[in-house]
Amino acid sequence: MTRFGDFDVLCRDTPSYTWCNLFYRQVLKKASDILTDASLPTASAGLGVNPTCSIPRMGHDGSLGNIANIVVCALSLLFTGVLIWATNRRKAAVGRIELRTFLLLYFITLPLQLITTGSFLEQGSTSLVALTAVHAGFVAALFWALLANALVATQVVEDGTPSSLIPFYFFAVCFFAATTYISFDVALTITSTFGPSNPPSALHSIPLFVFTSIWPAASTLIYFGIMTYIVLAVLNEVRPMWFYILSAALFVLSQLAYFLLSRVICKGSSQKIDGSFVATILETAAVGVLYLAWKSITEESWDEDPYYAS
After folding, report:
1. 8-state DSSP, 6
2. Is 48 in contact with 36 (CB distance < 8 Å)?
3. Cβ atoms 107, 81 nearer than 8 A
4. What percent of the chain is modeled with pLDDT above 70?
5. Which of 191, 200, 221, 307 has the most CB atoms lying inside 10 A of its own CB?
6. CA–CA gap between residue 298 and residue 278 (Å, rounded)
């Protein structure tokens, strides 16, 4: 029976589920008891642990790796770079530095996602483990940055000042460090605190599950709740709210595409592509709409009113 914190079902049924890279190495020690032909040999194995469908490692059986998501991640990098440039130009906008940091963190996660899900590196390799652990850390920090942008928007403290930026960066570093350490411990079993799964086949880690699944979902919900209050109650506006609703809808659809469509697309394409590229498109679109929402409630030039009445 699946318990809270078990990754076995996700690693089996969700192609290109990134955090499976962190369990492969520890179960490889008992490969004969746990791993099936779907995850062996390591030289050609795709992402996942005993996956029902996965894209073989690049260069094996004519595989191009997760080519669709590789291309989409590269294009998303360019798009996010434009958003960062556009955000930086709005010198007087509330939360400009904080939103720019959020976009920078998203920008950093894209090449990490490209590598950790692209079927470039050998399963169980130290390089793949290290990059996946760092990726997990940046994802946790990214969602803190998202939530912090909502807190900044309340104007409890003035944005762009030390009172805003010091806790902003401090907690971002804390989330990054904690999640990265836990990820390394899960993968390399450095200690018995977060390391070995019990039983090994369950791929069990509550802390990793909390930081990579529960925390992103919770921070997104809280962010949406705070921004709804600000837009409808404080600004008494309706039009910007549609941007936030659209962004939230795109994010939810991206997760549905990732978890529900990936295996269907993987099997339908004979293990050439999966649904991760659809999820990346929708996630990047959600970030783009989030920028439009922020733009719609902030001033571009200096003004006494920190918000723009749309």
Report:
1. B
2. no
3. yes
4. 95
5. 307
6. 31
